[in-house]
Amino acid sequence: MKLQQHIKFTIAAILVSIVTSSVFANEIGDRAIDSILLHLNLEEVNITANRFREMTPVQRLSGKELEKLNSYSVADALRHFTGVQLKDYGGVGGIKTIDIRSMGANHVGVFYDGIQLGNAQNGQIDLSMYSLDNIDELAVFNGQKGEIFQPAKDFGSAGMLYIRSRRPKFKEGKNYHLKASLKAGSFATINPSFLLESKINDSISVSVSAEYLNSSGEYDFRYRRVTPDGAVAYDTTATRQNGDISSLRVEGGVYGTINDGYWRVKLYTYNSERGIPGAIVNNVWRRGERLWDNNTFVQGTFSKDVNRYYRTMANAKYAYYNTHYVNNDSKLIAVDNRYKQKEVYLSTSHAFTPFRFWDIALAYDYQFNSLDSDMANFAFPKRHTNMLALATSFQIWRMKIQGSCLGTFIKDKTITGDNEGKKKAFSPSLLFSLKPLRNGDLTLRAFIKRSFTMPTFNDLYYTDLGNAALKPEYATQYDGGVTYLRTWEKKFVRAFRIQADGYYNRVTDKIVAYPKGQQFRWTMLNLGEVEIKGCDVATEVTVSPANRLFFTVKGQYTYQYAVDITDVNDSYYGDQIPYVPRHSCSAIVQGEYAGWCLNYTFIYAGERYSQQQNIAANHMQPWYTHDISLTKEFKLKRGSALKGTFEVNNFLNQAYDVILNYPMPGINYRFTLSFEI
Amino acid sequence: MKRKYIIPLLSIITTLLLASCRGDEVIILSESEGIKEAKDVNANPYGFYLLNEGNMGSNKASLDFMDFTTGVYSRNIYAERNPDVVKELGDVGNDAQIHDNKLWMTINASHKVEIVDAITAKRIKEIEVPNCRYIVFDGNYAYISSYVTTIIGDINAQEGAVFKIDTNTYKIVGEVKVGRQPEEMVIKNGFLYVANSGGYNSEMYDNTVSVIRLSTFTQIEKREVAINLHRMRLDKNGKIWVLSRGNYYTMPPQLYRLETNNSGSITKVEATGLLCSNFEICDDKIYMYNAPYQGNSLSANITYSVADVHSAEIIEPNFIKDGTESLIKIPYAIKVNPTTKEVFICDAKNYVSSGSVTCYSPQGIKRWSVFTGDIPSSITFIYK
Prior knowledge:
A: 22-stranded antiparallel beta barrel, five-stranded mixed β-sheet, B: mainly beta, Methylamine Dehydrogenase, Chain H, five-stranded antiparallel β-sheet, four-stranded antiparallel β-sheet, 2 helices
């Protein structure tokens, strides 16, 4: 009898948490986190509450923790996530893309405030364009979120990155919040930013933020080689050229709440001019490529719980991306091309809860993309995408099962009409999660998902190179993992978390560039096949050795056995794929005492190969960097605060390339001063 | 109690700091492989250099050497012989030629001509020539074709040039504008013939051969031949063979034969009807391969054939007799040993992994094959 009652209570508690979390996942989540942290007297350490929200492996960095990391952009912060490979071409303005669990950058869905960022041209999102200045949380999910009440697109990719910008938050009794900060440092970088949040009334608030970045991108780099007997073969230091950037980001948002719901509208615009520093090769130390970007989008969300059985959500977005590329190197072909992309996105999601233990969701998304260019023989492709997702989840005892299937239907049109094609693909998933312990500290989980990435406009229609007959590229994932999380009060150890996953992925019909037969002619083919066996481990412990003194240590380790299994006759059959280290890890140590905060981070990427074949000529040494920062916050009158941070990055001054011939900066400094009221 | 935790914590951090350090980066060392089928102690030419392009931006141009007298093939010898050259041989090795016991190489995307001792492969000189492509020699001068010119002119014309270099002083002593993106050249009777491709502009290929009088180093004629010209050879009859690469869609690549008069002018342009992607002339024979355009599929039926240099007729439609041509994915260069008449075919595979070079007997039977660097592009024989 007693047991039964307990089970009933547990189920009820879980259900309540699920229902609330899936609607106001973030809102409630923040509050839950805040309350735990208040307890710890530590602000916003990353601890997740006892909820079923995370059925798939998830990692988050948020709030103050994110602020303290020595990071310039979203991409830098993602180096602390397990299972994530970052491609970094170096410097403030260098292109940075991520790849989750070696499946390729096109399998990563990047969402900004809940709506996916698109790039129909090449499918890749350059994360160097997204600064950390106004970001509240970064979350990386493998597979998909463990929610079903979401747009169809959220079921689509093999891995997701959710970037959540700051939403207005006000201190007790205040109806505005203002923050101004100035960052300055190496590479002649100057980076002022500004944020104003205002509460119009109890249900509506607005926010405006702006950020300007200017940097010469100049830094010294060093190439040093020795002969086998240890004598210096060459040792040269030069300055990185043409890596300058100048950018302006302006964001505005209106946030409203209604009875059992909320709405938001957001405008984002980013303008930049940058040099593309290019590869450093023999006799070439400077290049002449320039790039101008304008990314602008407006998006809105509306969500409401109509009654206890039915919830609905609508999302819409219009985006405009303008790229201008110029190569004015007198030794090379002169190039001057412009590309314009437009995107229209509409989404409607519905969730039904016929019984407390059973949810059903249906989502439909429509998207239109177009790409224009002044290139010769350009195809002017247009794409209509329809996505329909059906999902359901059951909670029984301490167990939750979720199944979903997304159907994607695309139709392309080109100006010549001879390339247009219809394609469809299905993306099913099955998620399972179990909390075997009564206190909920332990979570076991498993998921299977097959997802795909549609060939991009470049793959299909690039002049002289595209292949309209391409099929989607598939990724199949099998994952099993465990999370253990525990918090204590008034003990030396305040919080402990460990999360580990083992997985097997297979990428099939991989789209690769392949020579056609004639010299200099390439085409895109569904040729590659990659097998990935991996393991991600992340752990975190917070200790309090003395009153008001806290230390948090986070560590992560990633193992990737990612090999090409396309054709047994290839010289690279069974070899590790390019730029994926077999071992990588990182660590963060944060100490906090009376307004002082010391942060140390370590990042390690093991040996890699720059090309498919794992031979000495393609071998790249491991690299690792040590960064340190010190922050002091001063509380001023009337609730205002002044904060200063000094950081030293790569303080052991290691000379390394993440991408072959793209040297990274050595030791560099940054100073941040911010004022908040 | 509390200290108990701090010590393991600190030790973990220390371990992380010290763990898996990287060593000094050692220069890339050569690798050698014995091929007993290639061994001939009395061979002359006694070996060849093979220049590998390496994918653009990778800085992986590399130099291999085959020694017939020992039967040893050595890959990637440049960095070992020249450890002090910053960033090694460079980016995109395009052409290699031996002249006066020196090996000249155009390193296209490194914008330089590299000159090394033909015996030791040690650097003698490096000469800056922007976007350089091919090399020919005449007397004490080397002539280098380049996709760009440093002579001020119409910036939109995208004209190329031929640079004249003194082989004793290694100084650039002249530059003459030719057509757009000039490729291979031949020298005949004091005149330089240059194949202009216009390959940068697929809307409007160049279709001319430039004729340069060497005594004055001026262009005296620009004769229309066919679009997108590339390879050029002189046969024993004094006729110039030039390959039009076609447009990769409707126009297939085809060989043209040119006749010239004593004043250098091109007097006859003959479309031979021989379709090929690349060719080489040795004595009376033209050795060629053809990879026809096949839309977006991989070309399956690459053919290797031999034509007669007088009649311009195919005399051997399938030169390779043992079926081993199916092992060659992307033929990228063809060369014939003038002494043994062995045929060497370079395979670029997928352009981003090791290529190979295969030696065929004059009867078309595979003798041996060996892995090369990335994109083997140019073979040059070395004589005693």
